[in-house]
UniProtKB/TrEMBL annotation:
Keywords: Cell wall biogenesis/degradation, Glycosyltransferase, Golgi apparatus, Membrane, Transferase, Transmembrane, Transmembrane helix
Subcellular location: Golgi apparatus membrane
The organism of origin for this protein: Theobroma cacao
Protein name: Cellulose synthase like E1
Annotated active site: D140, D434
Amino acid sequence: MAKDDYVPLFETRPVKGRILFRLFAASIFVGICFICIYRVRFLPEEGKVERWTWIGLFLAELWFSFYWFLTAVCRWDSVYRLPYKDRLSQRFDKELPGVDIFVCTADPLIEPPSLVINTVLSVMAYDYPPEKLSIYLSDDGGSDLTFYAMLEAATFSKQWLPFCKKFKVEPRSAEAYFRTAFEPREDPVKAREWLSVRKLYEDMKMRIETTTKLNRIPDDIRKQHKGFREWDFILIDGRDPNAVDVEGRPLPTLVYLAREKRPQFHHHFKAGAMNALIRVSSRISNGPIVLNVDCDMYSNNSESIKNSLCFFMDEEKGDEFAYVQYPQNFENLTKNELYGSSFRVINKLELPGLDANGGPCYIGSGCFHRREALCGKKYDKDCKVDWKRLHERKVKESASVLEETGKVLACCTFEQNTQWGKEMGLTYGCPAEDVITGLTIQCRGWKSIYLIPQREDFLGVSPTTLLQMLIQHKRWTEGHLQIFLSRYCSLLYGHKKIPLKLRLAYCPYNLWAANCLATLYYVAVPCLCLLKDISLFPKTSTLWVVPFAYVAFAHRVHSLGEFLWCGGTFQGWFNDQRMWMFKRTTSYFFAFFDTILNLLGFSKAAFVITAKVADDDVSKRYEQELIEFGATSPMFDILATLAMLNLFSSLGAMKKVILEADHSKVLDLFGLQILLCLLLVTINFPVYQALFFRKDNGRMPSSVTYKSIGFALLACTLAMY
């Protein structure tokens, strides 16, 4: 195409309201400066306890200010991307590249096979030439149950793919579609076909779930398929002229892989599985574009591939991009997002800020990669991709030969003395291997794209219990902190390789866990000082109260406004604030100290899979938006103890106000402290319900109740002496 005729395949637009955000950020900065001046000017000169508690609170406030600065930098120049897939079709319709899709699973009990195959079916049914699609499932559990489900899915796909095209199905996960769709009554012929395919799906689902429940594959089925005895198996060979659907159209290639794992060789969890898929797929299909999704995150938009290719195939800028990252969205959120799992503000406001500064981080799922960038190639501005050459397949070996080759590539010793996990593929050595991988790719000169489409592209399953959510965030924050304390710290590793603002933009996520200390101090110490008559904030009658009030109030109002603008509710925002505090005082706390112990050699990193299913009672309480506390955990001990500590302090403060002759004097001296305690009591209201009033199985265990009361009383008693 001549340069004068060039029309971009995508557009970049600045986020609206950037000037207002900068003015707001400047006002907050001024408020923070006045708070710092107050802390220094009125530092207590007498009383050792008073002086050190004051210094501790000042240090906590300095940390919060520093962390706020990092988030403000991240969002200073946010942009949105708009792909034009119609232009893509006009220019490259016959030259579209091959796309390899990786789906990873590890445990058939935590990640049920019926859930896994719905993700597989959704990506098999993309609106894309099927002969250019190859889907790979990595089963790190090596489960016969998962392989059996894949056999069923391969058969059902012959009906499902043409059905999706004829009925313009969205989403293309059969479970998600049939859960909400209605039969087309206006056309009896279509209605019969619709009901027929739904029955085929329900019968398949029943067979899979029955087999999973019995934990046994029927002998006749086991004998029919050698794949039950193999590491890898090509279920559908897209090159085979007989691999067609019921209407005679070609089917995508479908491959099952269970890589070899032995105790004496570290398998590197999901990163190791992904690297094995990269190698195996390079011999079978070798698509220049690779999509990876978690097994619970089905495709909700059949146009996702074409949207992504608008960036990779743009003639002027496309060669700069290594990956296109989509937001993580979840389909099972309650109306008011009980556990704050929507990531609304992060998805719509924070990550677009990273995009403007060089590109978002890679978050492990819902990401389209350029294969050569994922395999370690450095960006070269003089190297241009010839898509006409790449769109043709070159593999000539038979399926059986490719299966034998795949066994070699997926064996546990293949990576020894190679660059896999270092300079090639996903990087090893950290639970947050995806973030490190994205950073190393960017440091090799590549840029990345963050795309928020009108229709959510991928929908997953969020935790349905509080403990699951806290454990999940502990793993995430632990991985991020390990990155910050390793050679992959963006501030050091990215020096002279990526822009300064992008290096800083990684830090708010890498320092999630470090927020625990300042938050715990602010939650516990002011309340205890209230019992000891130590004032830590300005008198309400002085002007020094203004910066404290403004920063606290304006910041929260701004947070609420953003949450509502992103589509949330007021109750959802309040739940998000509650979970923010719960995570900082538990998940982040344990992640912080586990990371320190890991660095000192006293513990080892582990990969914890979040359960994707819950029993009926738990699901019912989740739908009713009742927080699930029905388990014993050190995290719940901390939550309950802090809640009781704030309750006792609030009761002590109210007693002080009532019994004091001069009420106004007490309120003037301790007004902000009392308000802080009452606010914490309000946030902890569900904890008090679970401790004392709930009778269902989701209530707080009695042992936690007794311990929390005992610890809180002890702390209050010690504080008063």
